[in-house]
Design brief:
alpha/beta, six-stranded mixed sheet, 5 helices, 6 strands
Length: about 140
Amino acid sequence: ADDSPHGTFAKAKGCDAVDTDNVDGFINDSGFPLTSSDQLKYNKFLAAEAHKRGMAIALKNDLAQVEELVDGFDFQVNEQCFQYKECHRLQPFIDQNKPVLGIEYEHPATEFCSDTTKWHFSTLEKKWDLGVFRVACK
């Protein structure tokens, strides 16, 4: 049996899925000389490890590699695609009937809910403190 730590904690806690974050280090100043190839290999590794444990896995952000990663991930969690006008980059998930869950922090739901419906996303307005406040698009 595989007993590596990747995902073992989440599975032991009874989680059905994991939400990766900061998996686009190659386009950010991470302090490491990461390449897009390094990132792609790591993200595919994360997906494989989650699936080995019977869990779904979300790709969070990393829009630059969506087309290469969509097959291995079960859904997408995106922060602020409406604010940054990059929602079109998530279309590969929709094309494969995979959910796109969005979070917008800087704009009220009234500014993006009509668009989120057109894109077939499920999007929330949240505050940066991630407290209980939320406005869901219907």
